[in-house]
Amino acid sequence: MSEENALTGIKKRQQITNTRKQVFTWVALAAALVVICLVVGWNLMQRINYQNKVNRDVGKTAQTMHDNVEAADKLIKNVNALKANAALSLPNLKADDSTVFQVVIDALPTEDDSVALSSSLQNKILSKSGVTIEQINVDTTESDSSSDSSSSSSSSSSSSSGSSSSSKSGVSKADDVQFPVAKPITFRVSLVGSFDSVKSALQDIESTIRPITITKLTIDGSDDKLNATIEAQTYYSSKVNFKLGKKEIQYEKK
Question: For residues 118 and 136, is the Cβ–Cβ distance under 8 A?
């Protein structure tokens, strides 16, 4: 009896040990399955968030394209209105001009044309009044160009810093569009003539297609001979090259 009891006790201990091993195995498998499910779920959530970002940007792009299509219709109407404008008709153009929009370009040039401005004042605008032109001084825009270069360098540095920060965030943004800004050209003209001729010269300056703002006018002398000094400003606007932007949304793993 004692031997049978001893064997029975050994079997019970073996069964308990086997049961513990089975329980430990099942717990380990369950823990592994839970970890796998958590990892898969986390990756799935990241992919869902990334796809949502892509969908939002695609929606914004589609809306921008839709707005551009609507704006194109308005632009076509405005262009057609310019073509039908009597003030921009072909008789007002030069012989070598091919489009009516040359009048608009003449009114607001796309580059600093100091030499052309001086020639236009001397040969076209002021020559009709009969005044004697003693002096024409057109200020160069070196200071403006230097300030533009400094501003462009600062903007490039800021854009580079912005690109570095965007690279850290995983998003590369397109450069912001720089809209044109009218830049002044200052000139000074000294005239000699009668009262009527000086008056006619001022009227010719006023009626020219190019916008001219007289900042200072000095007149002395008699009705027969007046000395007039005109200080004024006109403007030009640089060209703008519109380019398609590019934005890359990178998938970030955490």
Answer: yes
In terms of domains, do 131 and 233 share one?
A: yes
In 3D, which of 175, 114, 120, 106 has the Cα closest to residue 144?
A: 114
Residues 133 and 56 in one domain: no
Judge if 30 and 81 occupy the same domain.
yes
Q: Which of 42-46, 89-93, 165-169 has the lowest mean pLDDT?
A: 165-169
Helices and strands in the chain: count of H runs, count of E runs: 5, 6
Percent helix, strand and coil across the chain, each rounded to 5? 60, 15, 25
Query: Hey, is 72 helix, strand or coil?
Result: helix
Report d(CA 9, CA 29) in Å as an integer.
30
The per-residue pLDDT for range 162-217, each reduced to its tens digit, is 333 333 333 334 445 566 788 888 999 999 999 898 899 898 888 888 888 899 99
Q: What is the pTM of this model?
A: 0.49
Query: Per the structure block, which two tokens stand in for 16?
Result: 């308990």
Question: Is residue 136 located within the same domain as residue 202?
Answer: yes
CA of 172: how far to CAs of 46, 158, 160, 249, in Å? Answer: 20, 14, 11, 8
What distance separates the 2 farthest-apart alpha carbons in the chain? 153
* Domain of 130, in residue numbers: 100-142+179-237
